[in-house]
Amino acid sequence: MGARRLNDSLWLIDTGSPYDCHVYVADGGTGAALIDCGTGLAAERLLEGIEGTGCLDRLSHVFVTHYHADHAGGAADVHAERGVRVLASAETAAALRVGDEDRTQVAVARAAGVYPADYRFPACRVDEVVADGARHEVGELSVTVHASPGHCDGHLCFMVDDGDRRALCTGDSIFSGGRVSVQPIPDCSPYLYARTSQRLAELSADMLLPGHLDLVLTDAAADLARAAESFRRLVPPPNILKADNADPN
Ligand SMILES: [Zn+2]
């Protein structure tokens, strides 16, 4: 539990919850941001982890990659506790604002045992709808929004640039080794996934910070290229979800 420093401006928070995605803190000096926020099941530990980075009092933004509960469920608590601005795509915002358990597949995932039986997706206010190409300053950092549908509708990736290194926070789009997360849900589209993989491969990212599993701290372009190349051959890249793997996603 706590926080792992990735470089001068990025941290990985460990909430200790097996239900949560990876949560990153981007520290821009005069301001700081969260990229995704877990389910909310470990809200206290999340805040403790952020406090451990020294960023809690400077936290100004939460960037949400997509509306699945393991990434977005914690937004309500962070917003209530810290009053930070929640930024998300139009699709994510629509689901978050009403706590939509159908659009977000929370009801299906709960029935499948991915979340505890008593888990409910908390509605959360979204302060700003962001779209492809939008750029935000977080202190000294620049955060650029990249639309990346495929895993689900309205998925966004965020490029965090400290002027020296570019870290692409990929949510559930592309993972280490160029892997993907394809699920039998209505808004998962291999076709859109393929187009997303091509676009992300052109971004010259140094680091690939996914929502689950291993981080890629150097030469991320190779992992992104691998996914794009596989899709180019009309072969979906390896899936992070396996038949014997009950990881929440
Ligand atoms: Zn997801």
Automatic annotation (TrEMBL):
Alphabetized UniProt keyword annotations: Hydrolase
Domain of life of the source: Bacteria
Gene3D superfamilies named in the record: Ribonuclease Z/Hydroxyacylglutathione hydrolase-like
Pfam hit, one: Lactamase_B
Gene Ontology molecular-function annotations: hydrolase activity
Metallo-beta-lactamase domain mapped to chain residues: 20-212
Name listed for the protein in its UniProt record: Glyoxylase-like metal-dependent hydrolase (Beta-lactamase superfamily II)
